[in-house]
Design goal:
The complex is a heterodimer of chains A (about 240) and B (about 250).
Chain A (H helix, E strand, L loop, with lengths): L1 H29 L4 E2 L2 E2 L2 H11 L1 H13 L4 H6 L3 H5 L5 H33 L6 H28 L5 H19 L5 H6 L19 H24 L3
Antiparallel strand pairs in A: 1-2
Helix pairs in contact in A: 1-2, 1-3, 1-6, 2-3, 3-7, 6-7, 6-10, 7-8, 7-10
Chain B lengths: L1 H34 L9 H15 L4 H12 L4 H7 L2 H6 L4 H31 L8 H28 L5 H16 L10 H4 L1 H6 L6 E2 L4 E2 L4 H24 L3
Antiparallel strand pairs in B: 1-2
Helix pairs in contact in B: 1-2, 1-3, 1-6, 3-6, 3-7, 6-7, 6-11, 7-8, 7-11
Classes of the chains: A mainly alpha (about 240), B mainly alpha (about 250).
């Protein structure tokens, strides 16, 4: 039942984001840009530029923030927290289930371009490699889950409706400035995979493969943030 | 009273945004000072600094300007539809005030907040440039702030309309952001190239990029496009009026 509750609370956001991602993927395939700065580019590059480097990645990175918001504090301001808390389940489960549903939705959104691009490409007589698209999905999910976890954490500690998304966005932007200075890449840039799973338009970047170390570090950070969120919720007085 | 209510509802978002814009603009200025501290004074350095400030703050592409646009969309959220979810709409509607006055109060408060925020990066740059031995022209800062103010009001009005139309937890900000993405995508459609696209592209109006009133080599605005700005403000007023119309007809 908690799973259905979590799904119903987030499905509008999820479906809206899925719709815009699908629309951008379709746009990239059916109306491909043929040149950049006067230089001819192939189909694979145009898809990369539009989906994995540009618009779709930006939309995904920003809107993922809203997948992590919600929780019991929001329910308190909506006067439904008492009903939820009266259910015969532990608070840990009340936190774990929305987190799991959110991560599952995130995985679905990250996989959406990988499912759409190879199929849509066939319709226009082109090909887009599934293996490359799946690698980007791993990047989107791995780094996107960090954004999700920060939003989730803020929605557990801050009650205001817009405080969590605004604070998460601010953290994301600050990370963009501070991260490179301390040796970590801007999370939205890491999601584009240039130099890791993509070699650049003219193959001038040596691809090193998926950044497993970074992904593992971010996954650990996600687990810590979600655990802290659970701990805070257990100790909070509603 | 309605103005105080509108202020109370949006002040946390506004103050957070103010602190953030001020902080990020300060970082941009000090970063330039940090990276250039070992270089001697060069005659062209003020031009380099002006171009740097324009490209990182005023231009676009992961710049402060894009953050400002997103912040402004958030400021547009709220209204009676949101109050219904919180169970307080009945109290607001019981006040002996027509519905359009709620919209006007929120709209005016939002416009004031957007205008104040649009001046934050410009004032921060002006105030801090001296501390790193640089200067940024006062007139340029004010002109960019005016551009941001007018265009910011249009984005605010779009967010405002979304919050009047769409109900549901976080559905209205998501819709507003999707509308912004669609708008930005539509500007790239080649079909529109035959039309005066520059007047449709509010992003370019804000940054001056590719505009006849902007000199990219000096990163300088030569004259403010008053007709375009009035047109954009007209669109913003139209969106706010549409929000009032929608709110008047809604059943609470």
């Amino acid at each position: 039942m908690l799973w259905i509750k979590a799904w119903r609370e987030t499905r509008t956001r999820f479906l809206l984001i899925a719709a815009i991602l699908a629309a951008i993927c379709a746009w990239a395939v059916f109306f491909p840009q043929t040149e950049i700065d006067g230089r001819h580019i192939d189909f694979r590059t145009t898809v990369y530029q539009f989906v994995y480097y540009g618009k779709a990645k930006g939309v995904f990175g920003i809107l993922v923030i809203f997948m992590g918001t919600g929780g019991l504090l929001r329910e308190r301001s909506l006067h439904t927290a008492a009903f939820t808390l009266s259910l015969p389940v532990s608070r840990l489960r009340l936190i774990a289930v929305p987190a799991a549903v959110g991560l599952a939705e995130l995985a679905a959104l990250a996989l959406l371009p990988a499912m759409l691009l190879p199929i849509l490409s066939i319709l226009v007589g082109q090909t887009y490699p599934l293996s490359e698209a799946l690698q980007f999905s791993i990047l989107w999910f791995g780094f996107g889950s960090a954004i999700f976890a920060v939003a989730f954490f803020f929605s557990v500690i801050a009650g205001g409706e817009f405080v969590a998304p605004v604070a998460t966005y601010l953290v994301l932007m600050v990370q963009g400035y501070v991260g490179p200075a301390i040796g970590t890449e801007f999370i939205l840039k890491a999601m584009s995979g240039i130099g890791t799973v993509y070699r650049g338009a003219s193959g001038n970047v040596a691809a090193t493969g998926l950044p497993w170390a970074s992904l593992a570090a971010y996954s650990a950070a996600v687990l810590i943030l979600l655990s802290v969120s659970g701990f805070v919720t257990q100790r909070r007085d509603f | 009273m309605l103005y105080v209510k509108s202020w109370y509802e949006s002040r946390i978002r506004f103050l957070l945004s103010l602190v953030f814009l001020c902080g990020i603009s300060s970082c941009v200025v000090f970063y330039f000072g940090y990276t250039h501290r070992h270089e001697g004074f060069q005659s062209s350095q003020s031009l380099v600094y002006a171009r740097y400030i324009w490209s990182v703050i005023f231009k676009g592409g992961n710049s402060v300007r894009e953050m400002f646009v997103l912040i402004v969309l958030f400021l547009g959220m709220g209204g009676l539809l949101r109050e219904r979810v919180h169970g307080s709409a009945a109290f607001s509607l019981a006040l002996p005030i027509p519905r359009w006055r709620f919209v006007v109060a929120r709209g005016l408060m939002g416009i004031l907040e957007v205008s104040a925020l649009s001046f934050v990066p410009a004032i921060t740059v002006l105030a801090l440039s001296g501390t790193i031995g640089q200067s940024f022209p006062l007139t340029q800062a004010i002109e960019f702030a005016i551009l941001w103010s007018a265009c910011g009001v249009a984005f605010f009005a779009a967010g405002f309309l979304c919050s009047a139309l769409v109900e549901g937890e976080y559905a209205s900000p998501v819709t507003a952001l999707i509308a912004l993405a669609i708008y930005s995508l539509a500007l790239n459609i080649s079909v529109f190239e035959q039309y005066p696209l520059s007047t449709l592209n509010i992003h370019s109006v804000m940054s001056g990029e590719g505009m006849p009133y902007f000199r990219p080599e000096a990163a300088q605005i030569t004259a403010l496009p008053w007709v375009t700005l009035i047109g954009i403000l007209g669109v913003a007023v139209g969106l706010l009026a549409l929000s009032a119309y929608v709110t008047q007809r809604q059943d609470f």
